[in-house]
Amino acid sequence: MKNIRNFCIIAHIDHGKSTLADRLLDVTGSVTAREQQAQLLDSMDLERERGITIKSHAIQMDYTYEGEQYILNLIDTPGHVDFSYEVSRSIAACEGALLIVDAAQSIQAQTISNLYLALENDLEIIPVLNKVDLPSANPEEVTDDIVDLLGCNPEDVIHASGKTGFGVENILKAIIERVPAPKGDPDAPLQALIFDSVYNTFRGIETYFRVFNGEIKKGQKIKFVATDKEYNADEVGTLKLTQIAKQSVKTGDVGYLITGIKTAKEVKVGDTITDFANPTTNIVEGFEDVKPMVFAGIYPVDTEDYEELRNSMEKLQLNDASLVFAPESSAALGFGFRCGFLGMLHMEIIQERLEREFDMTVITTVPNVSYNAFTNKNPDIPFIVNNPSDLPDPSTVNRVEEPYIKATIITKSDFVGNVMSLCIEKRGMIINQTYLTPVRVELTFEMPLAEIVFDFYDRLKTVSKGYASFDYHPIGMKVSKLVRLDVLLNAQPVDALSALIHADNAHNIGKKMCEKLKELIPRQQFDIPIQAAIGAKIIARETVKALRKDVTAKCYGGDISRKRKLLEKQKKGKKRMRQVGNVEIPQQAFMAVLKLND
Amino acid sequence: MVDAICKEIVLRKCEIDGEIATIYFGGGTPSLLTNVEVDKILSTVYSTFQISENPEITLEANPDDLTKAKILEFSNSAINRLSIGVQSFFEHDLKLMNRAHNQTEALECIVLAKKHFENISIDLIYGIPEMSSEQWIANIEKALSLNIPHLSCYALTVEPKTALEQFIKKGIVPPVEDDVAQEHHAILIEMTEAAGYDNYEFSNFCKPGWESKNNTAYWQGKPYLGVGPSGHSYDGNQRSWNISNNPIYIKKINDGELPLEREVLSTRDKYNEYVMTRLRTTNGISLKEINENFGLIFSEYLSKQMIQHIDSGLLCVKMDAIIVTKKGKFLSDGIAADLFMINI
Ligand SMILES: Nc1nc2c(ncn2[C@@H]2O[C@H](COP(=O)(O)OP(=O)(O)OP(=O)(O)O)[C@@H](O)[C@H]2O)c(=O)[nH]1
Ligand SMILES: [Mg+2]
User: Which residues make beta-bridge pairs with A61?
Assistant: First the structure.
């Protein structure tokens, strides 16, 4: 046990965690040259394509240091704020953390929030100044920033590059010398923490755990404490690039377990695994359930695909327990699901996975946060509104509360004005401003969560020329003046386009919404009036003019092939549209409200 | 170039097994050819392939190239049909479209051509910015009064990177209005119909019996061989097209290589092309033919897809043929796309 080290890699998004993990795997000989590829641990297609980590990934390495054999369990974590729960789970299985800081970008919002998570769990922090190979790297200044943040010595900061492999030996040395070996009693009853679970089509749910006391043996009768269910440990082992089955996984080590469980819900991440006959009395406290932040309807483009969509969503949930959904129906779109997501990126990813992994073409409706409505009749009992159309009749509503967040933005001092104006426009209230260095500022706001759903990230990027990072935490509900903005197409209300909006912004947003929809809805054989309304009052209107001419002049020998391809493309586009009444609405139109400023 | 074209014809000998019914000199400026050159190409064609008894041999030309001497010269060749790019009989329109000829040349060349050729087609363009309905009517009247047996009338499309596009962008010329084009189209249909012309394809009109055999073949999905740079060919299963660059074309041909790219058509591609081209013709789409050539899946699919457009009055069924109605004519690309099959 004294030769085991458990550590995770944490950082702000894109600071190079997964690339540095690649180098650690190379240097320790954990992957062969043939197996090598960039960001090897980002195994999902989507992760590879987008170049981001979505899920934590654990892997075991063997390393000989000063003549001794060590087992190093590494967990690579995602940097994006939507997936910060993945970080907190990984942290719970480790004694140490590599805190990676990009030598050009320095400390960013998630650097700080992830560091705090690690410190709360008493992890040994090893700061790594990464990407020192970059011409724009600023090693002295950024080292100072890190020293300021951690209160460590400049010598403690390891200079490295995931690209060139520089400094990797030093990192391994620091892991062995500075991260404490796991403590625990090998002879005590089994106590293991579930920190992740993965769905495998052939083997069912694979449960990833960290043993704190005792050991878990193949064939052992075990119990999950929180769910109070018993299982047989059909297979246990450690996590190399492929899984290595073992007779047992011992105290301090990290491994996987297969029990034949088929549904992800049965495995609660944060739960404790113990021996059935001789259970532990040490129950480590689990994790809070991840709460969805954003809700949206997901509907099949073709109404006949509803059942297939349900199947796909269920399968997706096996992989991603943070996805929640419940059936709902919409007058415009028929049957579908109201889904809860961790954030906008998560929503985008779910939609994309449905399309590529399950070949489902879906419409995602305008996303919203979860509101509490209080009626005059029941002024103390909140009525939860996860869908704008659930908002009770305004005349019966006593008040509506919306979720607020504490938002932290780190930017350059040049952009403080821009960022503040944006946040104020987004109904934010500044509560703190700290100069981290003379040129880098941390701004703290309280603002409605709903405002970051609507086109916040893109605009933050624009107003700061890319030099702003953002992190947030929910801080509870506050009373707000909200109205429901409805959209009518061809005089028919389309419920899937409704949004709850602050009353003061409603006119402006209604107008922009009509303009945007005019851009997105293709011309059809008749004029299509677009109207925005609050209650019975029309506040904005536009018209999509009828299509008069849709025929090319010439269609001779050389034109046929090109023209066919053009029309095929057009038809493909139409297949992604949904007919509401007699109006064809393209998929993106339902998200129009998110892109009003493009 | 003529040598290369002849070489290509020989190289592609085995690509055609049936009889050739129509030969077309088109694309670029074939009117630059001398009679000797025309003869050289035609004799290569005749010695390489089997030619039907009375082939249609068309030459495409612009009025400014068709001088008296040239017309006389061509009348002594095997060419028996002229397609003349008149575009308009009005100076203003010709300037706007950046044409090399003027209104006098347009008229004169037709009068001259008529002396030596019976089978003549002219191109006319409508929907030109600032073109009034009266002007368009005058254009059609002129064509009808000249008693030309075949008209190709095209709604103006503003092609990217043309002077016209620049003018419109800069506001020097008002943009093309669909409503205007639609009105001109209606006028065109009415006047040609009254004069006894048959609108046998969306843009083509002829006196009975004067259809262009060449173009009709395209819409019937018949095989064709296109030689020379940018020449497009179809053998019933695959489409191919030559590169457009002249020097490279000549070099490759001289090396005995065919400078072309190919694309093999799937049944679905062929079905889509059938729908797209047939919808433009008076023959329309035949469900029976679809059933025979593509199978039941396609005919059933089509039957289902067409209902919406029959409901909205854009399509109608007449004697086993599905054709676009007057109302649907101007929207026929969109209708075709709706009838397309994308995945099986
Ligand atoms: N020049 C240079 N580029 C690097 C280095 N490390 C990573 N990168 C690049 O930085 C980008 C992000 O790298 P990743 O390893 O995916 O970053 P990450 O921290 O895992 O990102 P998330 O998991 O999405 O938070 C990629 O384009 C890498 O090629 C480095 O040391 N030097
Ligand atoms: Mg990563």
Answer: A72
CATH code assigned to A4-178:
3.40.50.300
Distance A276 CA to ligand 2 centre (A): 37
- Answer whether residue B140 shows pLDDT above 90: yes
The beta-carbon neighbor of B280 closest among A555, A571, A575 is: A555
Q: In CATH terms, is domain A294-365 a member of 3.50.50.60?
A: no
Q: What is the ipTM of this complex?
A: 0.93
In CATH, the number for domain B278-339 is 1.10.10.920
A378 to A408, A411, A472, A567, B146: CA distances (angstroms) = 36, 45, 32, 57, 86
- What are the pocket residues of ligand 1 if the criterion is a CB atom closer than 6 Å to any ligand atom? A 11, 13-19, 39, 51-53, 78-79, 130-131, 133-134, 161-163
Model pLDDT for residues B244-297, shown as the tens digit of each residue: 999 999 999 999 999 999 999 999 999 999 999 999 999 999 999 999 999 999
A275 membership: H or E segment, kind and range: strand A272-275
- For a substitution probing ligand 1, which of A10, A18, A19 has the most ligand atoms within 8 Å of its CB? A19
User: Which ligand gives the minimal distance to the CA of A160?
Assistant: 1
Domain boundaries, chain B: 17-219, 278-339
Q: Could you tell me if B159 lies within 8 Å of chain A, comparing CB atoms? A: no
pLDDT in tens, A204-218: 889 999 999 999 999
For the whole prediction, is pTM greater than 0.95?
Answer: no
CA A90 – ligand 2 centroid, Å: 14
CA angle A162, A165, A166 (to 5 degrees): 105
How are beta strands B19-25 and B50-61 bridged, if at all?
parallel
Task: Report H helices in chain B.
Answer: 2-11, 35-48, 68-75, 91-96, 103-116, 133-145, 163-170, 178-194, 213-219, 246-254, 267-278, 287-294, 296-311, 326-329, 332-339
Task: Indicate the domain borders of chain A.
Answer: 4-178, 191-275, 294-365, 371-480, 487-495+505-594
Question: Comparing C-alpha atoms, which of A13, A15, A9 is closest to residue A110?
Answer: A13
CA–CA distance, A350 with A313 (Å, rounded to integer) = 9
**A556: closest CA of chain B, how far (Å):** 6
A549 to chain B: which residues are within 8 Å by CB? 155, 178, 181-182, 330-331
Q: Is B337 on the interface with A (CB under 8 A)?
A: yes
Please list every residue in chain A whose beta carbon sits closer than 8 Å to the beta carbon of residue B340. Answer: 567-568, 571
pLDDT at A419: 95
As its CATH architecture, domain A371-480 has 2-Layer Sandwich (3.30)
Q: Does B344 have pLDDT greater than 60?
A: no
Residue-wise pLDDT for A318-348, tens only, equals 778 789 999 999 988 999 999 999 999 999 9
Q: Does B97 contact A at CB distance below 8 Å?
A: no
Cβ A100 vs Cβ A33: under 8 Å: no
Residues of B in contact with A359 (CB under 8 A): none
pLDDT of residue B137: 96
The share of chain B scoring above pLDDT 70, in percent, equals: 100
Nearest by Cα to A176 from A315, A73, A248? A73
CATH of B17-219, picked from 3.30.750.200, 1.10.150.20, 3.90.180.10, 3.50.50.60, is: 3.30.750.200
Q: Specify which residues A97 forms β-bridges with.
A: A8, A125
- The binding site of A for GTP consists of 14-19, 130-133
By Cβ distance, the residue of B273, B312, B333 closest to A551 is B333
Contact B182 A554 (CB under 8 A): no
Q: What residue in B sits closest to A551 (Cα-Cα)?
A: B333
Indicate the top mutation candidate among A14, A57, A159, A470 to test ligand 1's pocket, ranked by most ligand atoms within 8 A of CB.
A14
Q: What is the pLDDT of residues A164-203, one digit of tens each?
A: 999 999 999 999 999 999 999 999 999 999 999 888 888 8
Q: Does domain A487-495+505-594 have CATH number 3.30.70.2570?
A: yes
Please report where in the chains the tokens 């009509």 appear, as a residue.
A514
